[in-house]
Design a protein that fits this description.
The protein is α+β, with helices and mostly antiparallel strands. It contains eight helices and ten strands. A six-stranded mixed sheet has the order 4-5-3-8-9-10, sandwiched between helices. A two-stranded antiparallel sheet has the order 1-2. It is rod-shaped and about 170 Å long. It starts with 18 loop residues before the first strand and ends in a 12-residue tail after the last strand. The model has no long low-confidence stretch (mean pLDDT 90).
């Protein structure tokens, strides 16, 4: 932007930025006065890497690289997500399987493989409701195929087996008795390990008028069975059975819950055991009439209800054999 004095005959301006320029030069004569200046206009172009088109290409290429990187990263993320989801699904399935197995194990008796009381509590509400609805809808004394029959089974003198042969032999008898009871069940029936040497057979879709057939079958089959104790030893055994049908009162099917029928079957069982063992006894009602005090009497005065004819009693006891309801 200003004149510069030099004695050189050559001027160099390296690394000038791009733009328009004008170069001027003048000389001084012998007296020191400057002459007219001569000028040269010129333009310095930008290098190719600084041009707009190159920057556009560079921006586009950079965008494509970034987009490609994002897509590659997204594919990796999606692939990883799919792997994680598969892993989570596998672990969830394993966990659900384990939980289901644990749930099933919690409802199975480990010795006999039978269902336990927890299974009974979970299963009965649906069966109970179905039977009650059937009686409400038909209003008949007996609705065939809609009764629940509870048969309480107890192995007679089981303590003698443990005392004489040891607990492993007793366990073998219990396991074989469980298998025998299962084999006597119809489709839909199930057997519960009630405790000790007691079992509860639940007959679903049954008929209270034919419940004695189920009881007789159980007593006779157990009596005829030879229990293998291992090491060449075997014994014979008998059982006692008490049964009751649900609904207990057909005229008011929802008055007493299913637990009341199980309790009644238990009373019948112990009546057999006190009287003679190796037999069966059951009670039920087969009409719509609801005698006054029947509900309370089922819990506290079962012998009185039988004596007054308010409950039908069937048993394998000889005619005229007195029943010992209490000790």
């Amino acid at each position: 932007d200003a004149w510069r004095d030099t004695t050189q005959t050559e001027a160099r301006y390296p690394n000038l930025p791009a733009g328009a320029y004008r170069f001027e030069v003048r000389v001084k004569d012998w007296s020191g006065r400057p002459t007219r200046s001569a000028s040269l206009a010129f333009r310095i172009l930008r290098p190719w890497w600084q041009t707009w088109w190159f920057r556009g290409i560079l921006l586009g290429v950079s965008g494509l690289v970034v987009l490609g990187g994002l897509r590659w990263r997204n594919r990796g993320v999606l692939r990883r997500m799919v792997q994680l989801e598969a892993l989570v699904h596998e672990r969830t399935w394993d966990l659900e399987t384990a939980n289901e197995a644990l749930e099933q194990a919690s409802m199975v008796d480990p010795l006999t493989g039978l269902k336990n009381r927890r299974y009974l509590r979970l299963t009965m509400p649906e069966l109970e409701g179905r039977s009650i609805r059937a009686y409400h809808q038909t209003r008949t004394p007996v609705v065939r195929g809609e009764d629940l029959v509870f048969l309480m089974v107890d192995l007679d003198h089981f303590k003698r087996v443990n005392d004489a042969h040891g607990h492993p032999a007793g366990d073998a008898v219990l396991s074989q008795a469980a298998a025998l009871l299962r084999s006597l069940c119809r489709e839909g029936d199930f057997v519960i390990r009630w405790g000790g040497e007691e079992f509860l057979v639940v007959g679903t879709g049954g008929d209270r008028l034919a419940a004695d057939i189920m009881a007789r079958n159980i007593v006779e089959r157990v009596r005829a069975y030879t229990f293998d104790l291992g090491n060449g030893r075997s014994i014979r055994a008998t059982c006692s059975v008490g049964y009751a049908a649900f609904p207990l009162i057909p005229g008011q099917p929802g008055l007493i819950p299913w637990e009341g029928a199980v309790e009644l079957a238990d009373q019948c069982l112990y009546a057999v055991k006190r009287t003679c063992r190796n037999g069966w006894l059951g009670v039920f009602r087969a009409d719509l009439e609801v005698p006054e005090g029947l509900g309370e009497g089922l819990r506290s005065d079962l012998p009185g209800l039988v004596d007054r004819g308010q409950l039908t009693l069937r048993s394998s006891l000889p005619p005229g054999q007195p029943i010992r309801w209490r000790d």
